[in-house]
Write a structure and sequence with these properties.
2 copies of one chain form a homodimer.
Chain A (H helix, E strand, L loop, with lengths): L12 H15 L7 E2 L1 H8 L3 H14 L2 E4 L3 E4 L4 H25 L2 H19 L3 H18 L3 H21 L5 H17 L3 H26 L1
Antiparallel strand pairs in A: 1-3, 2-3
Helix pairs in contact in A: 1-3, 2-3, 4-6, 4-7, 4-8, 4-9, 5-6, 5-8, 6-7, 7-9, 8-9
The structure holds a DNA duplex (30 and 30 nucleotides).
Chain lengths: ~220, ~220
DNA sequence: AAGGCAAAATTTGTGTGCAAGATGCCGAAG
DNA sequence: CTTCGGCATCTTGCACACAAATTTTGCCTT
């Protein structure tokens, strides 16, 4: 239930490679714009180009990588215009998850969510950004699960993944964790009270704030 | 603008094959559950297994095909539970498209939408189901475009594509076209009036009705 | 006759080679 | 000095071949 890693079965080599590259993109080891050369990746993993190629294709369809027909693949570069749109959709999708969660979460799920929020409180107080980031992901995951709609969950997780490489930046804002934690509290309260409208509004606001901070960040960068 | 075909660049053979298989799934030539044998497909297209394989991988990630690790690929079988969830999400996503469209559509786009609705009126009156279906798709596409959010558009189109094989069934309901047309009218009016709330509600209702009819259909089938 | 085990056959996953397309460089012409 | 065109090189796209795995079939045992 509180599962946040989805490495279910590296049944095939291509899936293995995909998961590794995915992880490296999330962690920032592979920056947006980095070229993904099939041959060097094949050499690195001790495999042939074929599974590497399939892994890259999967990443292309997940949106993390872009690939021009005969020109190779690169980690999806930061496109400000598109980022704004993704955050806009993300706020709606997460809002919907929270709305459904407020209606459908079981008592156990609600307790679990409250526990996660409690753990986040300790991380927030200890100013442990890395751990807070991890708990934050678990928190959002719990709400995705709480929607009890797998299709919506997949959408949310896909968006979360595609935004992950950039979301990290905002944590540099020193007081952001406090704000984030407080907003989470609103959502938890609304879900506990089984109030869909309030849950949706609170979550939308939470993500919108993140989007604003991100926009501010990129405006400084450019 | 009113473009509904997205065969932009058959740059690579794999993309060609994917588009063909996609089309066949939509048209019902390839029923859910049908096995997709790499070798026979390769023979049919006069190519090797490699591009066929890549095409299938793409279809897997688009959700139209499922594939168990060493067990081959089949056209995604009808999963009632999942279908219900997809319709639920579809109603929200289309509702959001309509909401944004009401706020963001240009005068030209609004006229185009009205024209499409007018064309649908003639098809509806003539009881030309096939043509109505085509115009219906163009209508929804126009609203997706009107949202002016490419990420949201992609989501909507992906869902529309995955539901297409089943959506066709509901048109058998003789009087459904009249209802569908009337609901479209509500949406057009709300968008013309630039009323986001009303547009969203009308579109949500429209899709929800489709979902109900679909649910009714499958309950009869089983 | 029925059930289980084993071996063969079919099918997918991976490795390798070759050809086509694209990028970059270098030279020549304006 | 700049710009355009042709060539070289590199990378991807596709074909083909081999290996691994799963399913099916047939035989043997109970």
């Amino acid at each position: 239930m509180g599962e946040m890693s989805e490495q279910k079965r590296p049944a095939t080599r291509a899936d293995e490679i995909r998961q590794v590259i995915e992880k490296e993109i999330f962690q920032g080891n592979l920056r947006p714009g980095t070229r993904l050369d099939e041959e060097s990746l094949a050499a690195r993993f001790g495999l042939s180009r074929t599974p590497v190629r399939e892994a890259i294709l999967q990443l292309v369809f997940s949106g993390l990588v872009v690939k021009k027909p005969r020109q190779g693949a690169v980690v999806a570069p930061l496109d400000l215009h598109r980022m704004v749109q993704m955050f806009e959709v993300m706020s709606e999708v997460e809002g919907l998850c929270a709305r459904y969660a407020a209606r459908r979460m079981s008592p156990d799920e609600k307790t679990n969510l409250a526990d996660l929020h409690g753990k986040a409180a300790r991380m927030c107080e200890a100013r442990d950004l890395d751990e807070y980031y991890a708990v934050n992901r678990a928190f959002h995951d719990a709400i995705y699960d709480g929607s009890h709609n797998e299709v919506l969950q997949e959408m949310a997780r896909s968006l979360f993944a595609r935004l992950a490489p950039y979301r990290r930046y905002q944590l540099n804002h020193p007081h952001r964790v406090d704000g984030s934690f407080a907003e989470h509290g609103e959502v938890v309260a609304a879900i506990a009270a089984a109030d869909p409208d309030r849950a949706q509004a609170a979550m939308r606001k939470h993500v919108t704030i993140q989007a604003d901070i991100f926009a501010e960040f990129v405006s400084i960068m450019s």
